[in-house]
Amino acid sequence: MSDPAEDAPDPTDDDEVPDPTAEDAPDPTAGAVEDADVDLGADTDAGRHEYDPDADHAFPDERLNEVLARLESDEEVVAYLEAQNVNPVARKGYNDHGSKHVEIVRDRALRLYDLLKSGGVEFNGARQQGLEEADEPVIVALAATLHDIGHVVHRHDHPYYSIPLAADLLDDLLPSFYGVADQVRIKAEVLHAILCHHTEEQPLTLEAGVVRIADGLDMERGRSRVPYEEGGRGINTVSSQAIERVSLREGDETPVQVVIRMNNAAGVYQVDSLLKAKIEGSLLEDRIRTVAINTHSDGNDGNGSIVDRIEL
Length: 312
Fold this sequence. Notes:
The protein is α+β, with helices and mostly antiparallel strands. Helices cover 42% and strands 12% of the residues. A four-stranded mixed β-sheet has the order 1-2-3-4, with helices on one face. The chain is globular, with a radius of gyration of 19 Å. The two termini are 37 Å apart.
């Protein structure tokens, strides 16, 4: 029997029933309507926002690409990403916290980082450690990859369990890329970002803020990070199915615009309870604009489309 206190709704919690088709499902609202400020038909990133190592980026990416190649081939890292799904999914009945979640979070973290860099945002984590700009995306990618491995110990308080496990993995991985002093500095920044992704401790670096927000962006159709009651009809259940698509793009007034497409106004609960809480205290509040678009029928035999636009 699960602990009621642990299962109680938490504005920053990330518990949900897995939907293995969520990322690959077609976007029913893509190109359907246009808003004065948000052109839904112009979303060139309506897919999975995968990081492409061969694409042009607003940051030096060679070192990041080398680290990513190592992560994807590291047997121990791969094993952790599979094992960390057992406690939350098989034993607690929560949502996916395995390799699929990590892939989504890492891709969106790097997409978010790229947009912020393109918008002229200066990051402070690597710089204050005396590291190079090329180390910023490395910190983001490593933290996004290892942020949930503490689930192999327990779902409850997993960020704290992630710290020693990630530290051991980093001790094995970083010597291939850095000298001893820089290994310590990179590890310090990665562990800080891991801790702050899902705890009361607020990020002190923009790199950590990116990882924290990216964790909340895995919220499309059944992948919500907010508690869910299987078979229920409460606000958590209804709202968790309402998010059709989350898109990251360059904003007009801010470096980043997050566009969330919903098929039901209940989806606002997910955005307000989850993403808003992730953005607050991330050090990126003034650099990200979030717009939720609710596209739904007018109720007249399914004819006509109504678009409600909500800015948070």
